[in-house]
Amino acid sequence: MTASIGVVQKQRGRVLAGDLLRRADIAIYRAKVEGKARYVVFEEGMDTQALRRLDLENDLRRAIEAQEFVVHYQPQVTLESGDLTGLEALVRWEHPEKGLIHPIDFIPIAEDIGAVRELGLWVLEEACRQAMSWDSEGVLEQATVLSVNISPRQLDDPQIVARVAAALARTGFPANRLALEITESVLLSESRTIADKIAALRSLGIRIAIDDFGTGYASLTYLTRIPVDFLKIDQRFVSGLERDDESKSIVLALVNLSRWLEIEVIAEGVESRAQLSHLLALGCRQGQGFLFAKPLSADDARVYLENARKQLVA
Ligand code: C2E
Ligand code: MG
Ligand code: MG
Fold it and tell me: Given a cut of 60, is residue 112 above it in pLDDT?
């Protein structure tokens, strides 16, 4: 058992008991947000931050109710030719006043308030529905893999496999064209149930990608315990290719490792020609990044797909 502790220092003058407790509460809350099993001492200003956070939480609950989210799509390509191999679905919050908000600013909050399961399933179903509609218009190649990010909190859901299967059934999207991206931390849990869920998803035909590979932990043993299909090399190693030799060694090691394990490698965040030529020299075959295309709105992605098809035919 662990505890989160909020501390309020004794103040001069008279303080109302209610205020004291409220400050302790804010400090406890902060301790929980920072990862639990710790103490936090209340400081002036924490209450306004806490209020802002509370505002954001309420705003997010409202947005989920009002369905203010959209999915953008980033092409994944063969590095050598630039040919499309996949599309990654990336959620955005279309805030009525603040404009487009990126996931980094609201997914962690959705995780904390227990809203990420609902949101994540919505993204999955929306992306599948969109892909089916491109399919019926004839702009999407059958071989194009649709990748959807899954939060660790979603994998905690005992019903996750059934829910994913239901989303596929409702949209008609074939399981073998879907990849789910999970982060390394999920695989590190020794829990049998996680391994079982991943195995169950894979037996549906769904492929599993490890996102941001190399940022989490040094232990690679889980790769032998839990089979996966793709490793996504984190952006930091790709951008490091132009600066240091360590990044080169790491990318090379990952490319070789995945060859042995028969896992496909995808380089994330490829921004420059120099990075591209390093990746090719190191034997990396697939990638995504601003050099090829930014994440595109559904309308822009459609235009991209049409052009990609025309090039393929020509
Ligand atoms: P990710 O899955 O690693 O997605 C890649 C992120 O890198 C995206 O940021 C993308 O816009 C950005 N990116 C792509 N190419 C480049 C590049 O060349 N240079 C740079 N600097 N950045 C590039 P985005 O869309 O802001 O998403 C951030 C993270 O939020 C994602 O990282 C993913 O972990 C999470 N996320 C996005 N959508 C969802 C979702 O539907 N569910 C969950 N649970 N998480 C999501
Ligand atoms: Mg991803
Ligand atoms: Mg990533």
Answer: yes
